[in-house]
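Predict structure. Chain length: 77.
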Amino acid sequence: MVQRIGINSDQQKKMDDIFQANRLRLVDLNATLQKDEMTLEPLMSSETPDETKILVQIDKVAQARARRAFSKTGLSR
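Prediction complete.
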């Protein structure tokens, strides 16, 4: 593919560096999402659910999902 689009070795290295940085960022974003979802679970299954805490945590989960989705598309937010 590199030869087909005609980029040089410096450009290839830059692309590789960007790809690696985004992979590492995606790992962090997935971990954050997983933690936020794990925090939500006991709130939802509580015998006396606190609606305010649940809504705050749902918002955190939604934001984490959005950040992950933007990262996967190459867009940043």
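Summary: Residues 69 and 75 are 9 Å apart (CA to CA).
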